[in-house]
Amino acid sequence: MLAVGATMRQLAMGRELTAKASTVLRLALAVLSLAGCVTLSASLGRAEPHRPVVDTLSAVVSPTDGKTVTPPMDLVAVATPTTVAFASTSTPVPTPVSLPEPTPKPQPRSQPVAAGSVPVLMYHYIRVNPDPADKIGFGLSVTPRDFEAQMAFLAQKGYRTITLRQLSDPAALQGRAVAITFDDGYADAYETAFPILKKYGFKATFYVITSLLGRPRYMTWEQARELAAAGNVIGSHTLTHPDLSQVGLTEARRQLGESKAEIERQVGQPVLDFCYPSGRYTDSVAAAVKEAGYSTAVTTRYGWHASAESAFEISRLRVSGGSSLGNFAAALTE
After folding, report:
1. CB of 93 closer than 8 Å to CB of 87
2. What Rg value do the Cα atoms of the chain yield, rounded?
3. Closest Cα to residue 53, out of 97, 99, 93, 98?
4. Tell me: the pLDDT tens digits for 252-293?
5. CA 328 to CA 314: how far, in whole Å?
6. Three-state SS at 69
7. What residues have CB less than 8 Å from 327, skipping those under 6 apart?
8. Among 64, 243, 306, 309, which is least packed by CB within 10 angstroms?
9. How far apart are CA 172 and CA 190, in angstroms?
């Protein structure tokens, strides 16, 4: 009997030690959980790997279009210096996604457009930006879908396209006139924009960098000839796209003259339209453009071209990537 009693006492002590050990283990796991190492599953009674705590004030960049998006408050865990609150373990935290931007309403102009003024649209790439991290590329890239919507809008509103040289012709400015320009001579201007322009009966001016034609991402001379044969204008954007305000007049004149001569040789038509690289120029450069035999020159200065504006300092409306049709329409509001 004494032996049996001793055995029972040992078993009881063992159960007590086990219970205490279990309690200590649970307390230890709880401390680790608060320290950010693990979380406790109350329903299953086991330790699970800790989900990363997401600061709701931190934004993420969507891999699809490069837009910055802040995760919704109810989908993330919120951390502060004194408290830690976790999202429900029963619902997985979804990966933040790009949210569509609402179409802004067209805003009225602060000043009326002067009589005889014409919108001159400036485009670069017509493509889906291939690198979301490239913010400059995103701003220069109008998607094919957006470009077609913009051209459809112009057609529906009764716009007709004119050349830059027609800006000085009062008869050409009657009704709703618009000039469309493309800078740099990218391949998608021919491959993507050209078919859409033809669809709506529009013409455009394409400013090419002569040393780059035929290289990857740029149109070829054969494509430039096809554009010209279809009634479009091929203008000069210099030989190598230098900053003409910095290279000196001797080099500026070389860039102006040799690019003009090369386009005329390749395309077989007079070249009378010029585009300042990056919109940079001086009064002396503008005078050199006129001396080289050009009739017009466009800048990157934002605004409608006014009839009183110099033909060698033509303002334009830059059409940027991600711009809504509402914004496009607002820029054309008369």
Report:
1. yes
2. 33
3. 93
4. 999 999 999 999 999 999 999 999 999 999 999 999 999 999
5. 19
6. strand
7. 104, 106
8. 64
9. 26
* Residues 166-179 pLDDT 10s: 998 888 888 899 99
Burial (CB count <10 Å: 0-12, 13-18, 19+), residue 173: middle
Pick 26 or 255 by higher pLDDT.
Answer: 255
Question: Is the separation of the CB atoms in 50 and 33 below 8 Å?
Answer: yes
Class of 120-331 per CATH? alpha beta
Q: Which two tokens stand for residue 56?
A: 């709701």
The single-letter code of the amino acid at 164 is L
Q: What is the residue type of 64?
A: T
Alpha-carbon distances of 128 from 140, 187, 191, 200, rounded to whole Å: 10, 13, 13, 21
**Would you kindly state where each structural domain of the chain is located, as residue ranges?**
1-50, 51-100, 120-331
Residue 263 tokens read as: 């386009």
